[in-house]
């Protein structure tokens, strides 16, 4: 139950390197189940969620070692096919073991991932897709119970370009008999990551990153070695914090080409953005301009940056609207930002943020990964002391963020409870 104490205001300056992408590392770790050997994954960030996925793979009978961001994942002795409630309830991404277990072992029992702070997060598209591939799926005492002799290729049209469903079905289809075509697939860089890792293991996949992904099933996959992409959401969070504090920061080891929508919005807010090979230099302006934002599926503006942008716009000149189209109820950060003196009104999935000249420090409560990073940005913009409680949410998705911000001149300390 650690907390952060932030003394604002500040101006972030300097350079910082981003970590590997949580949302790429988690599914690639699960994909190792398909190989039945030892996979190597590099650029693994030191995050709670990465540790949870490693724990889950060990519960299934795998063995995982992590040394300085290099994970060796041995899935040759998997002998258990149940992902228990106690682990799944702490991390929805545990559902990523479902597709690989059914595809390789013909059976899986995975606890239904519950909702989260901002509402229900169903997995019906994962299940429908697996059934289209020939799996028998039933819900039993809160668990997804899936079995199959061998999955068979099929045409799957997703009603929503779900990242999780696209990834789970690509993994399942890679060992199916025949060809699978996934229409309206998610196009996120993390989807491409999983496909690339599997292709290193001999999978036959085409179209990853587009709305139509074709997978020609193979009989077996070899262990792969893969280096995870940098975390575009961490890079975006640091860029937003820089603009929020009128700072000048170079984000290193990132992929600007994964962040067009975020960088566009920061420029609209008045920032100067200079991109280079693996770098983004962000310079905040004297005055933050108000902006209207619509979240959507990649390459549109990511919902995982919505809260951080809202914090930034709390001190903009004028009113901004933020329309949340991916998770219409994703506003648990609003009452907490209002504790810092922000002026925000909600009407359904639209928030109107009226900029204020100043914010005041206060105790606030983290509720999920991205909401909590928004509260840190709020604390850096607020006068006086802000105490962010329950930062374990942040540790799930950001690797020692307080140390990175300290290096940029922020007055932020972790209070170990
Ligand atoms: C991934 O979640 C990310 N998580 C989320 O990031 C991110 O917010 C989300 O994609 C959207 O970009 C990971 O990668 C581990 P979806 P996922 O399936 O896969 C609906 C973070 O902070 N849907 O693309 O769970 C769903 O309710 C996290 O790092 C169904 O209706 O998201 C949502 O409205 C938070 N049925 C939409 O689709 C399904 O079976 C997109 O969800 C699946 C999804």
Dominant shape: elongated
**Record field, number of beta strands:** 25
Low-confidence stretches: none
- Let me know the average pLDDT: 97
Termini separation: 6 Å
Radius of gyration: 21 Å
* Strand percentage: 25-35%
Q: Give the % helix.
A: 25-40%
**Main pleated sheet:** 5 strands, mixed
Q: Helices and strands: which structural class?
A: alpha/beta
What's the total helix number? 14
Which hetero compounds are present in the coordinates?
Answer: ligand EPZ
Which characteristics define this entry?
14 helices, four-stranded mixed beta sheet
Description:
The structure is a single chain. With 417 residues, the protein is α/β, with parallel strands linked by helices. 31% of the residues lie in helices and 27% in strands. It is built from 14 helices and 25 strands. It has helices spanning 22-31, 48-59, 85-88, 98-105, 124-132, 163-173, 189-200, 232-244, 260-268, 306-313, 334-339, 369-381, 392-397, 401-407; strands spanning 3-8, 13-17, 38-42, 63-67, 70-74, 82-83, 107-111, 136-140, 143-147, 155-157, 179-183, 204-206, 212-216, 225-227, 248-252, 272-276, 279-283, 293-294, 319-323, 343-347, 350-354, 359-360, 363-365, 382-389, 412-415. Strands 1, 22, 23, 24 and 25 form a five-stranded mixed sheet that branches. A four-stranded mixed sheet has the order 2-15-17-16. β4 (63-67) and β5 (70-74) form a beta hairpin. α10 packs parallel to α12. The longest helix has 13 residues, at 232-244. The protein is elongated. The N and C termini lie close together (6 Å). The structure holds ligand EPZ.
